[in-house]
Design goal:
Chain lengths: 471, 405
């Protein structure tokens, strides 16, 4: 069925896409930027992704003149009750100007603790247009909410954590943005992607694609991804507008720091189980490789459904992991660190929720986990800040960007060996707080794979300068 | 529904083979299903992690059971359970209280010495005294708001063991569809139900007529014409139970494998999956049923075809309840309107306007008419059931009008 219409031409927003109705299929080559459009026979109109709106809207208006009615919702101006921002440092001003010069579409790369949030708030204050802030996790989303409230006296809307309250200024998470952008993609003029390295993932990128917002700002300390997808940020957000290298930051805005690795040994029983599991896995894989030289872990997982021996090996692997992360000895080492730093604020990072809760139950110290509610989170952070709580335990939710005041000592128990995590975690202890040196302890099991992970961590450039000390 | 982490599917030669437990291959699973239901039925007051641990133990010696299958069962059992949540934030309050009380004793040490004298066990006992509760109870309540520590309050359950297995099989199909980029259904019957539920699942369709009363319907979402996307996978999964409840169809879904290649999932109504979906609008169908019975296969040169035609104009579709075909080739459509609200009738009229070039008879119940309503000539008004005589009269009148034109 060919669609012939005398209807006027209209451009509208439809579930994350733009529909151009009233233009026949045969007109496609004549339309501005034909490569982004596709003919949708299901609705009898041309369709393209909402991300192209800024590029095409003016050109279409020029091409069709008054017969085009642009029905795409326009972002509204925002009235900010007040604007109270700290004076930006020269590097922050430089970053903001560079972004403005890039037509307000680009990335700012600055190390943790150098005030990316302030740059973003300054951009919002300057543009005064409907804005959406996308953060990696709920904690960071709430933190943005608080920062916006403090800076502008504006109670931002929240989409995520079971809430769906869209306002001219709204905060959300990457996961919620992926789900809801089809619905809310047309209302915003400015998108801010905090920790933008989360965006290029196969699904999450749709948060950028399904939105019409012409202005986009990406913030991160480390844009690189091991899968190379960070290159796509150039079109999802815009090219890098400003880049401050990590080393430039150290010593000026960040404190000096020291990394101390504490190897712990498993107790006899744990070590015995651990070794038995290792043997089981090794024997199993070796025996399989005799028949099947390229036998891999993936094949093992696949076969574990039907082959009891493969399943046995798989279970051994999981058991090994759980021994690594939950060794009783780690709790003992933690006690030693607590003794050593009595009177100082200490942050403890664990590899899992279960370990975090275990530490909390042993020492009766507060945790911040992904499900911790706003009120408790605030109380815990405040009491930690004013010194009432000596210790704060967190799983990976504190990895990135969560403002933790005044911690000079951090302990990492478990965790994976990615460069980015190491940087982010260091950033937490390295906030500028006078001249005192910060210390990061890594508690790893000796004779296990964790030692290797720790070595991998230290290869990252964040660890190049500091002194390493073995206890 | 399951999560992607619980999905078990094998890709072989471009085809998806979804995990399925049947009488012939997995007879012994009926017993497991029975035991699983028993664990949850008797599990009131127990923590989620304890229940999951028990299910896990149940399969400890079963050679044919991947970890994902166990996790999927746990999810399906949890889906029909109510766990005690902590709406008043009691656990959070308890935590803040307990943690604040012990800060001055920090750190709690295993073996006290001169410098650090606060023995973990002693302080905890002292705290229990202060709060007037045994320590074990305090420890239990401390993280009662964490999912895995929540206690089971009520288990709604499944009617029996085989119902749990049926649900498992459908849930695995649904989880496999999370990978789907598009879905094609070739249907002969139940067109109306299929389209209605696809629309409820927010899918767009493309319809091609393959032959009399046979259509190929391709489902996808708005952005599917622009790029391959798995964005609508959840929509396909939501739609599937409705499709399984229908008759006379074949389905092919295009999937993306974890290795970024394509694969197909093929299904049809003869695959024997049972769906828990109730048939839509039972009132509607019972009225239609009785008319079809009274009419018989043929009457006065007219043949009755149930839901024979899909009328479509882009996303507006209209599947009349009956098509009457006279042996001289005249085709007349009948739509029976049940007892509906004025808004629904108005909406229906709008739809019908788009198809006014066709011969459509509408049967409207007297109760639904406004007072003094103007009755069009192709409208039949009925009291409780549609009378055959008045229907035949209308059919003949339209046929003569048509042939004389």
């Amino acid at each position: 069925m060919t669609y012939i219409s005398n209807k006027p031409i209209s451009l509208s927003f439809n579930r994350g896409t733009l529909l151009l109705a009233g233009v026949g299929r045969e007109k496609l080559p004549e339309i501005f930027c034909p490569s982004v459009w596709a003919w949708d026979s299901r609705v009898g109109a041309l369709r393209c992704d909402a991300i192209h709106y800024a590029a095409i809207s003016a050109a279409l208006a020029g091409q069709f003149g008054p017969s085009l009615s642009d029905e795409v919702p326009k972002p509204c101006r925002v009235h900010l009750p007040k604007v109270k921002l700290p004076r930006l440092r020269p590097s922050q001003i430089e970053a903001l100007e560079a972004w403005s010069k890039a037509d307000c579409r680009g990335q700012i790369i600055m190390p943790t603790g150098t005030g990316k949030t302030e740059v973003a708030l300054a951009a919002m204050a300057r543009k005064k247009i409907a804005s959406l802030v996308v953060a990696p996790v709920r904690d960071l989303m709430y933190q943005w909410h608080r920062r916006i409230l403090a800076a502008f006296d504006y109670d931002a809307g929240i989409v995520g954590d079971g809430l769906s309250n869209i306002k001219p200024i709204t905060v959300t998470t990457y996961d919620s943005a992926y789900i809801h952008m089809a619905k809310m993609g047309a209302g915003f003029g400015l998108l801010i992607f905090d920790e933008e390295h989360h965006l290029p993932g196969k699904c999450r990128r749709e948060a950028a694609i399904l939105s019409t917002a012409p202005m986009r700002l990406g913030l991160t300390a480390t844009a690189e991804r091991s899968d190379g997808l960070h290159k796509d940020l150039d079109w999802l957000i815009g090219p890098v507008a400003y880049h401050m290298p990590f080393k430039e930051a150290e010593g000026s805005t960040l404190a000096h720091f020291e990394v101390v690795r504490i190897p712990v040994t498993l107790n006899q029983r744990e070590q015995a189980t651990y070794d038995r599991c290792s043997r089981t896995i090794r024997h199993f894989i070796l025996s399989r490789r005799k028949e099947q030289p390229n036998y891999t872990w993936r094949i093992l997982c696949k076969e574990s459904g039907s082959d009891p021996q493969a399943r046995h090996a798989q279970k051994a692997y999981y058991l090994k992991n759980s021994i690594e992360s939950r060794a009783a000895e780690k709790l003992r080492v933690l006690e030693d660190i607590f003794r050593l730093h009595k009177g100082q604020q200490i942050l403890v990072f664990t590899g899992s929720n279960a370990m975090a809760i275990e530490v909390s139950r042993r020492f009766l110290v507060p945790t911040i986990l992904s499900h911790t509610r706003k009120r408790e989170r605030l109380a815990v952070l405040e009491n930690f800040a004013n010194g009432a709580f000596p210790v704060l335990v967190a799983n990976r939710v504190l990895d990135e960007g969560v403002d933790v005041p005044e911690a000079k000592v951090a302990v990492v128990i478990g965790g994976q060996g990615s460069t980015r995590q190491a940087k982010q975690r260091l950033g937490r202890v390295l906030r500028r707080t006078g001249s005192a040196r910060a210390t990061l302890y890594e508690v790893v099991c000796e004779n296990t794979k964790e030692v290797q992970r720790s070595r991998e961590r230290r290869r990252s450039d964040a660890y190049e300068r500091p002194v390493h000390r073995r206890v | 529904m399951l999560t992607s982490d619980q999905s078990i599917v094998e890709f072989k030669a471009g085809r998806a083979i979804v995990d399925r437990l049947t009488q012939s291959t997995h007879r012994h699973y009926l017993e497991y299903a029975e035991s699983m239901l028993a664990i949850y039925r008797n599990g009131k007051g127990r923590q989620r992690r304890q229940l999951h641990r028990e299910i896990e133990l149940l399969f400890a010696d079963e050679p044919d059971c991947p970890v994902r299958r166990i996790q999927a069962f746990c999810k399906l059992l949890d889906d029909r359970s109510i766990f005690r949540t902590d709406p008043d934030g009691k656990a959070a309050k308890l935590r803040l209280d307990v943690f604040s009380r012990v800060t001055r004793f920090h750190p709690l040490v295993e073996k006290p010495d001169r410098l650090f004298e606060h023995d973990e066990t002693k302080i905890k006992a002292q705290l229990a005294d202060d709060l007037g509760l045994p320590w074990s109870e305090i420890e239990q309540g401390l993280y009662a708001d964490v999912m895995t520590y929540q206690a089971l309050e009520q288990f709604e359950g499944y009617p029996n063991a085989s119902a749990l297995l049926s649900r498992y099989n459908v849930a695995q199909l649904q989880a496999c569809l999370y990978r789907a980029e598009s879905m094609t259904v070739v249907a002969k019957d139940d067109l109306k139900t299929i389209l209605r539920y696809a629309k409820l699942a927010k899918l767009l369709h493309d319809i091609v007529r393959l032959g009399p009363s046979k259509y190929r319907i391709t489902f996808s979402g708005p952005a599917s014409v622009l790029r391959q996307t798995r964005r609508y996978g959840v929509n396909f999964a939501k739609f599937l139970p409705a499709l399984l409840a229908c008759k006379g169809w074949q389905m092919t879904a295009l999937l993306k494998t974890p290795w970024n290649t394509s694969a197909r999932l093929n299904l049809s109504d003869s695959d024997g999956f049972t769906s828990h979906l109730p048939p839509p609008d039972e009132f509607d169908s019972s009225l239609e049923e009785s008319l079809a019975r009274k009419f018989g296969p043929e009457r006065d040169g007219w043949q009755l075809i149930r839901e024979g035609e899909i009328l479509h104009n882009h996303q507006k579709t209209f599947v009349p309840d009956f098509t009457f075909r006279h042996k001289d080739g005249t085709q007349i459509l009948l739509e029976i309107v049940g007892f509906w609200t004025p808004e629904y009738l108005a909406h229906r009229r709008e739809t019908l306007k788009q198809f006014r070039h066709l011969a459509i008879v509408i049967a409207v119940p007297e109760k639904s008419l406004r007072e003094g309503a103007h009755i069009g000539k192709n409208v039949l008004v009925y009291k409780t059931t549609l009378k055959l005589a008045s229907l035949m009269e209308a059919l003949e009148r339209i046929r003569t009008e048509k042939s004389s034109r």
